[in-house]
Amino acid sequence: MANGSGDAVLRSVRSHRTLVVAVALFAAIATVPLVLSAPTVARASTDSATIAVTPVTQQHALDCEAAALQMALSAVGINVSQATLLAQFGTDLRAPVMRNGAPAQWGDPYQTFVGNVDGNFVITGYGVYYPPIVKAASDNGASAEGGEGWQPAQLYKAVAAGHPVVVRVPHLLAPASVGYWTAWDGRQVWYSHRDHAQTLVGFDYGSSTVTLADPADGQLHTYAMAAFENAFALFHAQAIVVSPGGAAVTQAVSPTTGSINIAVRGPDNSLRLYWSSDGGWYGPVGLEGPGAAFSGPAVVAEGNGNFDVAVEGPSNTLDLYWYISDRWYGPGQVGPPGSTYSTPSMTIDPNGHITIAVQGPSHSLYVFWNAASKWYGPGGLGAANSTFGAPALALVGSAPQTLEAVVQSGDAALQQYSEHSGGSWSGPNAWSQVDQQYSAAASTPAVTLYQGPGNSLDAHSASGTTRVGAPGTTFSAPAVASFGTVTYAASQGFGHRLDFYIDNGGWGGATIPGSNASSYSAPSVVVEAGGNVDLAVEGPSNTLYLFWRIGSRWYGPGQIGTVGSVFAALP
Q1: Does pLDDT of 35 surpass 70?
Q2: Cα-Cα end-to-end distance for the chain
Q3: Contact 419, 404 (CB under 8 A)
Q4: How big is the CA angle at 346 (ends 455 and 337), to the nearest 5 degrees?
Q5: Which residues are CB-contacts of 515 (< 8 A; sequence separation ≥ 6)?
Q6: What is the dihedral of CA 204, 162, 568, 570, to 10 degrees?
Q7: How does residue 47 score in pLDDT terms, banded at 50, 70 and 90?
Q8: Are 173 and 46 in contact (CB under 8 A)?
Q9: Using CA atoms, how far apart are residues 86 and 64, in angstroms rounded to an integer?
Q10: pLDDT, tens digit, 9 for 90 and up, residues 412-445
């Protein structure tokens, strides 16, 4: 909250400011013309990709899911033992009810691990399906998206973006069949005597092959793509895409009161807010209840002290919440269903107009903008397969400043789009070679930072590309802010520590405001009017942590949000 506390502000009020959205693309283009040059995406990297992974062997007869997830987590910088993952899955040790030598009734692998992990397969032990695996990945600081019915092309796009995928296919793709039992809770559960979890780490369209890391033998195996896809479909096309910890928190400082507002993705996809006032912290206020936030939020502070929060809403909408005179309003639907597939990026131009950029459908780039109290868009800046993750918006140049949008392309390259006077856009402009960008970017007027190859931290500016953090240091999208001529950056470091960098005529090495096991999402950074720096991040056990810098000294963590209050989403 910007100013108040108490019951009057601890509520969400709907529809008190008119939002008019021109959702037809031709209407958006008529208002702001879009001038696009030919894409500069190199096909080679999107035709094939391989994720570096150290194969492991499962430690128990039936813990292939734990071993496959262990490999996937390791590939995104998170080291967890199979024993820890098994404990997080939970276990139902009740014996099955057998009929004609097959289980007729047993536990629910969608809820917990079924049977004895060292038992006889489909007799005294079985395994676990995607929901507990997703939860375990999230509990250890990763972003994970699981389900059934995946299309193989979706898996290959994930691998191309550097995200390993836990899949279910037989060992060595042996022939298999599927049966069913009834779980204790009544669910019909499919099963197979050859059900096996492995990690998809590579594909090659040119040779029509895929590469799997198989915990049964601790080896990498390459198979015909068609054989893999047939086996994958048989096991209900079940998969879990694992990526580094995504966005969970965002913050902004009121220019009128100095109050810091922190918006978070809360439990059950809720949207919550915390705020400072007179030296104390308050909240959470529920901007919206369960089922409202399916990405990290974005927040901006307007010049008059009002705030705006944007988030991916249900059915992939773009939803807006706004603060006026001590009250919150919303949601207002800026983007229609099927328009938004990432954490939004939001900025305010010198005329006070809000612009929001998101990853649109089919990995396109969409932009929405506000003018004369009306919303327009989506304007399609980037074509299909141009944008793989949250874009970064920033005002650049001297007065009058102009907007730029920076995105990760399908071949892991940094691409930039520019808005010109009159509202036209051009791009993409290649800002890096392929296979150099492995996270969403973060931009200021002077520099754009992103996770580079080998989990490094790289910066692009007018003078070229600079290595800010060495390989093995960076395991999230960075956050960046500027104060005068100084630039501050932060990221999740190795071992879930929090790393902080300063560019004051040259980037210095990382200081560590948060020690190991303190950071479980991409952080957020703001600079107060006096130059103090504040870092907000998802802490252990889904808490909300704050670190603050006064002068050159760091303080914290201060736990603002309780256990179970903050949850990272896919970037």
Answers
A1: no
A2: 25
A3: yes
A4: 95
A5: 497
A6: -40
A7: confident
A8: no
A9: 10
A10: 889 999 998 778 899 999 999 888 888 899 999 9
> Residue 240's closest CA among 68, 67, 439?
68
pLDDT one-digit tens code per residue, 376-396: 999 999 999 899 889 999 999
If one counts every other C-beta atom within 10 angstroms of the C-beta of residue 385, the result is: 17
pLDDT at residue 325 in the model: 87
Render pLDDT for 316-366 as a digit per residue (tens, 0 to 9).
999 999 999 889 999 999 999 999 989 999 999 888 889 999 999 988 999
Closest residue by Cα to residue 372 from 19, 12, 13, 8: 19
Distance, in Å, from the CA atom of 413 to the CA atom of 409, rounded to the nearest integer, reads 5
Could you tell me how far CA 382 lies from the centroid of its own chain? 20
CATH of domain 43-243: 3.90.70.10
CA distance 203 to 334: 37
**Which helix or strand (DSSP H or E) is residue 239 part of?**
strand 239-243
HSE-up (13 A, CA, CB side) for residue 87: 7
For residue 540, give the 3-state DSSP assignment. helix
- The fold adopted by the segment(s) 7-31+244-561 is Neuraminidase (2.120.10)
DSSP 294-358: SS--EEEE-TTS-EEEEEE-GGG-EEEEEEETTEEEEEEEEE-TT---S--EEEE-TTS-EEEEE
Residue with tokens 């939803």: 319
How is residue 255 annotated by DSSP?
Answer: T
Domain boundaries, the chain: 7-31+244-561, 43-243
